[in-house]
Description:
disordered C terminus; single chain; 18% strand; globular
Amino acid sequence: xxxxxxxxxxxxxxxxxxxxxxxxxxxxxxxxxxxxxxxxxxxxxxxxxxxxxxxxxxxxxxxxxxxxxxxxxxxxxxxxxxxxxxxxxxxxxxxxxxxxxxxxxxxxxxxxxxxxxxxxxxxxxxxxxxxxxxxxxxxxxxxxxxxxxxxxxxxxxxxxxxxxxxxxxxxxxxxxxxxxxxxxxxxxxxxxxxxxxxxxxxxxxxxxxxxxxxxxxxxxxxxxxxxxxxxxxxxxxxxxxxxxxxxxxxxxxxxxxxxxxxxxxxxxxxxxxxxxxxxxxxxxxxxxxxxxxxxxxxxxxxxxxxxxxxxxxxxxxxxxxxxxxxxxxxxxxxxxxxxxxxxxxxxxxxxxxxxxxxxxxxxxxxxxxxxxxxxxxxxxxxxxxxxxxxxxxxxxxxxxxxxxxxxxxxxxxxxxxxxxxxxxxxxxxxxxxxxxxxxxxxxxxxxxxxxxxxxxxxxxxxxxxxxxxxxxxxxxxxxxxxxxxxxxxxxxxxxxxxxxxxxxxxxxxxxxxxxxxxxxxxxxxxxxxxxxxxxxxxxxxxxxxxxxxxxxxxxxxxxxxxxxxxxxxxxxxxxxxxxxxxxxxxxxxxxxxxxxxxxxxxxxxxx
Length: 607
């Protein structure tokens, strides 16, 4: 009889659930995809039900539940921090206490009541869950691991060794000294939303110069050669206040934070570049220390900082480790996966075998999928026109449409687990088109024009386009576009600053080439997503290029789509040209406008 373990993360951001069955990752999903509330932090009952349904089991079949951190230890850190900063932290304390006293302290009772579960409940530490999510699904039987985030209970950075079925944390940096919170402070100061806008700062960085890097390292961060660091807390407000930075910080950098949605100036670009450069330096120094201390040839990464794919790419280029594997759901959502695997390997003491080459994450296609009957029921009931095409026809048909510069919503197979769209719930287009980045940003995604897009490319063709000697299946590595594909800048173009750099053609795949000639790469593998692979293969065979622009299937402010209904609504609310769901192709020209959707159209100022 199979042993089923349910992993849960909740109550900070990106709540999620995971089902592990006899050591195999069966299903995993974030709660936001079901509630349509971005970064939903609530108890992930919808994600749990989806995992149980995907596993074809009920809660009565669950052997044990693992929650991704220790609530009482986290509460202890909260109380100690408020006492240390009293009475300054009183408003923050008053705001935090109701949720803690009603829910966060009583997780065991909540799980029992919400799920009607009477079995064993485990509470590994937060960074243990991150480390487990990094090491246990990895291809390595033995490896160093490094976890970096905002904060768990106390730890903000930790490293150690994973071997066979055990993880062993060797050292930690504790709150309030946090690389994740430092980056979030600059996210806040540059006018973006903390815990969701950090990737905007990363995307903005190449437009700026590192003018503030020395100031950051002089005033804000005491960085040692081994990568350990301490923050100068007189500049930060996150310990006790309701903001990330304070007036001393603002005075140091010449003014108050940028107001959200106001114009992004050269100052924000320079700040973004500066904190990105500092982050890369810290990550590389820690990486070198981990290598020297552990002697391991492999490294596994998790924690929110591991989603900084530019820093990951720089770490890879340093050749400190022979191999690096990054958990695709590196943030708190992945804690649910790590907690479940701790239950299997460390609590139940089950053996683990890794082949040194393949991970066991199944391409991170771990969410719900929909049968053709589920799809047609909704569209037939609503008299929505579509054309049915076979799996054999899909690759060539979509390749032809992409070649004609159409923008296509691609909804195929299982939904991805983690923040990246990997060809399960993606919007795709022609990477060769010089206008595609602007079209997608402004008419499809309704987001800032500076934001770069990622390429999906056939695994075996990656070296023909990018300086990446290896694979990047989870879009977590940035690498330069091949020199021979780059277009040299004119003397006039070389003088451009800031956002003026945006519209310069930089390569023969300009839609996915960022202003610094880099790209965030997804290598596509036949074993994990054959239909997406075959579409790229057909594109290569017919038109001579194996790469598309790939962005997540959503618009600004919304989670990635989960259901066919979500996909159709998003398709109709944007200027996508076609939508493929399962074996059904939707042509925008044949569709009628959505009824009762004027408020949404007004919000995004659609034509």
